[in-house]
Each structure stands twice: as C-alpha cells, then as structure tokens.
Write a structure and sequence with these properties.
The protein has 330 residues and is of the alpha+beta class. It has 2 domains: 6-105, Phosphorylase Kinase, domain 1 (2-Layer Sandwich), CATH 3.30.200; 115-329, Aminoglycoside phosphotransferase (APH), C-terminal lobe (Aminoglycoside 3'-phosphotransferase, Chain: A, domain 2, Alpha-Beta Complex). The protein has 11 helices and 11 strands.
C-alpha cells in the first residue's frame, strides 16, 4: 500500500485533534498512534486511538468533494430508512464537512470476503432474504425519474475501456454483439425514462459484513442515483460463481432466490438491464485478467484468478447466446 502524502496526513491530524477537542501540538504522541488502514489517493481511512474520554473510532478523510458527498448521502439515507431486523450500518460519530471527514464507530467483523471464504459462501451464515429486504428499503427512500448523467457517463466510459482492453479474449461476433448492447443502451437512456433510486453503488459481498447474528452494510462512497437494477445485478452477478464447484450446483439458485424474495420486486429484462449486467461482468473479467498477470500475487492466487477469468468468459458467452436466441424468437 502506498503511503499518504505529508499534506494529507496533516489533514488527518487536524481531524483527529478536532475529534479529541485539543490543539494538534497537544496530542502529538496520540497522532503517532493513528492506524492507516486504506489509502487510495483520494481517501485516507483508518482508526484514531482512544484519548481521554474519547473512544477509538474509524475515520475516513476524503480529498475530493464527490466521495465525501456520496458517502454522506448514503449514510444519512440509511439512517433514515425503515429498519430491517438484523441488518444495520455503522453509527456515525460525526460528519466534518470542512475537512471532508466522516467518523464512524469502530467495528469488528467476521471474515466474509477473503479469497478462501469466498469459496464457501453458503457457510458464512448470511441471511440473503434480509440483505435483499434491506436493499429494497434503502432504494425506496429516494426514487426519481430524473436521469443521472454523471452515472451514465462513467458507466459508458468504463464499458468502452473494458471492451477495448479485453476484446482479444472474444470472437469478432461477440465483440459486435456487445457493441450492439452498448449502443442499444445509449439509445434507450436517450429516449426513455426509467426509475432511478438511491444506489449503494458497490453493493456486494465485500461490503456486507457479519458480526454475530447481525449483518452490517458498509462503504457508501459510490452512493448516487442509479437504475433500480444496478445494485441488484452488481450483487448477484458477482455471486454467480457459487453455482459451480466447489459449491453445490444449487447454491447460487438458493442465494439469488432468497435475495430476490427479500427485495420483493421483479426485475424486468430490458436494454438497460442487459447493458448493466454485461458491464458488471466485464468489470469482473478485467479484474481477473489483470490479477492473473500480477506477479505480486502468489502462484496459487493467480491460478484462482485465471480460473475465475475462464468461468466469467463462459458466463458472458452464455449470456450473449441466450440473448441472441431470445431476439430470434421475438
């Protein structure tokens, strides 16, 4: 992990001192105990140690407005939504807009998303009905028919980039079909209205945590209006691997059925559905392809990524074949 810059850590220190209600020069020893857990260039996240009557807390400091605004909007919407028994989000200690910082209660979770745990998803004890019910309640807090041009622009750009980088993995006919799906989606969004909801933006196993009998939804930094299908597809498409060995063949069917039963609203196939599903699968494929070539991972990990790449390619091929069959019937 790269380290934050000196200027970024100065902001983190100012946030910590403000939380402890002390001048920076009075808490120098405590500042040295700050634990940085994640740094992405535009964000520093970690833990502030306890000091006097102030407990240890988890912090996020953003260095761009959009990330702070998105996460703040998501956390506030989650706090105001109809609660779902057994599912929660971490409590907010403070929003600090001047420093673009958020302080959250410090939590400890079971490991549910490491590579080996992912091989045994059905053993994690996640209640997928409740996950679906929570997402539906979250979505329903904010709905609109006003298009989010920023979301569309970023997704179209990502689709173009991934397809350009990965086209050597596909046949010319497959590339042509994917371009047709892309063009149909652009035309659809230009000519039609659809329902947009407040979207978590990165709803999946990585951000569904477990603490005892409770589930916790975390990381709202990509929260923004999106088509209703997006979070649902993002979660389920990334779990399709559970339909293959070493899982039982019925595992994915059971997970998706429980999730959609909890969500309690059927998803209609459409040009936007096809585009979003294919975008998510291309995003997965790009990750698998890149990591399978990354020498910083051990040979065993790279082999798993290569296998995941092969299976993802097969799923995309199956999706395209089924789509062509449906079009011929229609």
């Amino acid at each position: 992990m790269y380290s934050p810059t000196t200027e970024q850590m100065q902001v983190v220190h100012q946030v910590a001192a403000a939380y402890w209600q002390q001048p920076v020069d009075k808490v120098l020893s405590q500042l040295g105990s700050i634990e940085v857990l994640k740094f992405t260039g535009g964000k520093v996240a970690g833990n502030f140690p306890a000091h006097k009557s102030f407990p240890s807390v988890f912090f996020k400091v953003y260095f761009y407005d959009r990330g702070y605004r998105f996460e703040t909007a998501g956390l506030k919407a989650a706090a105001e939504m109809t609660p779902v028994e057994g599912v929660r989000v971490p409590s907010v200690i403070a929003f600090m807009p001047e420093q673009k910082a958020i302080l959250l209660e410090k939590r400890a979770w079971e490991d549910t998303s490491s590579p080996w745990k992912r091989l045994w998803v059905n053993k994690l004890g996640i209640d997928w009905f409740k996950v679906g019910a929570w997402l539906r309640a979250f979505h329903d807090t904010q709905t609109t028919y006003e298009k989010n041009d920023y979301f569309l622009r970023k997704k179209f750009e990502k689709f173009e980039s991934h397809l350009n980088d990965l086209k050597h993995l596909f046949t010319p006919d497959q590339v042509d079909k994917m371009n047709q799906i892309y063009n149909s989606a652009r035309e659809y969004f230009e000519k039609n209205q659809c329902e947009w909801v407040i979207s978590h933006g990165d709803f999946g196993l990585d951000n569904i945590k477990k603490s005892g009998s409770k589930l916790e939804i975390i990381d709202f930094e990509d929260c923004q209006p999106a088509p209703r299908e997006f979070d649902v597809l993002n979660c389920l498409a990334r779990l399709e691997y559970t339909g293959r060995f070493p899982h039982r063949g019925s595992t994915y069917t059971e997970i998706s059925h429980q999730f959609l039963e909890g969500y309690n609203r059927p998803l209609q196939k459409s040009d936007r559905y096809n585009f979003l599903y294919l975008l998510i699968k291309l995003d997965m494929l790009e990750t698998y392809f890149r990591r399978s070539k990354d020498g910083s991972f051990g040979g065993g990990r790279r082999a798993i990524f290569h296998l995941s790449q092969t299976r993802c390619l097969a799923q995309i091929d199956q999706f395209l074949v089924q789509l062509i069959k449906m079009e011929k019937v229609c």
